[in-house]
Amino acid sequence: MAAIEVRGLERHFKGGIKAVDGIDFDVSEGEIYAFLGPNGAGKTTTVRMLTTLLRPSGGSAHVAGFDVVSEAAAVRKAIGVALQEAALDPLMTGRELIRLQATLHGISSRRGAELGDALLGRVGIDYAADRRVGTYSGGMARRLDLALALVHEPSVLFLDEPTTGLDPVSRKAIWEEVRNLNDEGTTVLLTTQYLEEADQLAERVGIIDAGIMVAEGTPAALKAEVGHPHLELRLAGDGAVRAEEILRAFGQTRAPTNGSICVEVASGAAGVAPVVRALDDAGFEVESLELRLPSLDDVFVEKTGHSLEPAADPASEAAEQLQDTPGNPA
Q1: Which CATH topology does 2-223+300-317 take?
Q2: Is the pLDDT of residue 326 over 60?
Q3: SS3 (DSSP) at 215
């Protein structure tokens, strides 16, 4: 059964801007699904529609079996949401905020206190529970926001750019908690512009660019689509052209660049030794070699024609930010 089902989903803004342009995808129950794309691609707009914060201009979407438009209240009860910009009162303590969140969900004071203490410990900030949130680091604030999203034990969790701007240690801590939640059965939809994050966490990846889904599949399958691993070699002296002739027996080659030559090795690491032996038998000395595996960056370039850059394009960023202004007509 699909925890999230999206068909022809659209969101248009004034000026003919199509932030999301007819996308389709499903997320199965208990799955981690990564929505990958640069800033302004439509990731956040999509999440806001799926979490009932923004009304679609067209198409349909169901979350936890409920329509995001006609059954919005039921959707909100079933989901947890941690958006890119956490709206945390800097004057309240972490403990106060999480107990307030429990109250807003209709949880009793006693149960709210128990849940709050447990969740603060779970995300690793119980030591700062009674400090004002305004004193928290970025990583601590993100962990608190995650705890707040979990108070009512949602079946589907939306994480919008959860580790943007965090240091590597904080980022890995968030990753670990996401894995733990998923192991317990929580479905996770994660939007990110970090290739490593998608590769590390997601069972499947959807790539969105300029509001359109351009690719979807497991990280391994997507990487396999763009080719086999390549062995990059640097040879002593000249003769790269003659070496290329030898290497063609092993797979497709790439013309020598910057003194290096590449050959496709379908069997990966197992194919390295035969290549080196053949070059040695032909009198070539290999100075260095590196086995390069296809990456999600290769996939993104193949599917969109450009690399995934963290920096936002001002025009497309503005399009995404329009969603926060009430009353924008579709």
Answers
A1: Rossmann fold (3.40.50)
A2: no
A3: strand
Output the DSSP codes for 12-80. Answer: EEGGGEEEEEEEEEEEETT-EEEEE--TTSSHHHHHHHHTTSS--SEEEEEETTEETTTTHHHHHHHEE
Could you read off the pLDDT of 298-320 as tens digits, one per residue?
888 888 877 775 544 433 344 44
pLDDT tens for each residue of 76-111 = 999 999 987 778 999 999 999 999 999 999 999 999
Tokens at 56, concatenated: 């679609």
Query: Where are the domains positioned within the chain?
Result: 2-223+300-317, 228-292
Burial of 144 (0-12, 13-18, 19+ CB in 10 A): buried
DSSP string, 3-23: EEEEEEEEEEEGGGEEEEEEE
Q: How many CB atoms lie within 10 A of CB 281?
A: 9
Q: Are 107 and 119 in contact (CB under 8 A)?
A: no
Nearest to 9 by CA among 329, 19, 74: 19
287 sits in which H/E element: strand 286-292
For the domain 228-292, what is the CATH superfamily, name and number?
ACT domain (3.30.70.260)
Pairing verdict, β 286-292 and 230-235: antiparallel
Give the single-character DSSP code of 132.
Answer: B
What digits encode the pLDDT tens for the residues 237-294?
Answer: 777 778 888 888 888 887 666 777 888 887 778 888 988 888 888 888 888 888 887 8
